[in-house]
Design brief:
- It is a single chain.
- The chain folds into 2 domains: 1-6 and 73-117; 17-70, no CATH class.
- The protein has 4 helices and 6 strands; from the N terminus they run βαββααββαβ.
- It has helices spanning 7-12, 43-47, 60-64, 87-99, and strands at 2-4, 17-20, 31-32, 68-70, 81-84, 105-108.
- By secondary structure, the chain is an alpha+beta fold.
- The strands form 2 sheets. Strands 1-5-6 form a 3-stranded mixed sheet, with helices on one face. The chain has a 3-stranded antiparallel sheet with strand order 3-2-4, with no helix packed on it.
Length: 117
């Protein structure tokens, strides 16, 4: 399951955050706190379904894993929607969200837009 929020919701909640230009645990990862630096993320690579490194782009996999990190926790009020892979998981989370009376949508990712086969 993916929990999806937005930079604007995280900022509006006054939460401390940072983001990286690649997988955060990599030694070459750069950490940013200024929204003006969002252009440091390789958005073309992030948006592609191809994961493997290719000739001339040996850090493609780690760039694809750029991260947005929130300190301590993300309040439920900051969650826009959930993404799941199976109808069973969608039912499970939809029932839970309904029982808790939360305004969160559940997206079934049948076309692998967020998950990759």
């Amino acid at each position: 399951m993916y929990l999806i929020s937005s930079v604007s919701k995280i900022k509006a909640a006054g939460l401390e955050y940072c983001f990286t230009d690649r997988q955060a645990k990599r030694a070459l990862a750069e950490f940013y706190r200024n929204d003006e630096d969002l252009d440091q993320i390789d958005w073309d690579v992030v948006g592609q379904q191809q994961w493997n490194n290719v000739a001339g782009y040996q850090d493609r996999m780690e760039r694809k894993q750029a991260e947005f990190l929130v300190r301590d926790h993300v309040p439920v009020a900051c969650i826009n929607w959930l993404a799941v892979r199976t109808e069973d998981r969608k039912r499970y989370f939809t029932n839970m969200i309904t029982d808790l009376n939360l305004p969160i949508r559940v997206f079934l990712d049948t076309k692998h837009q967020l998950y990759y086969p």
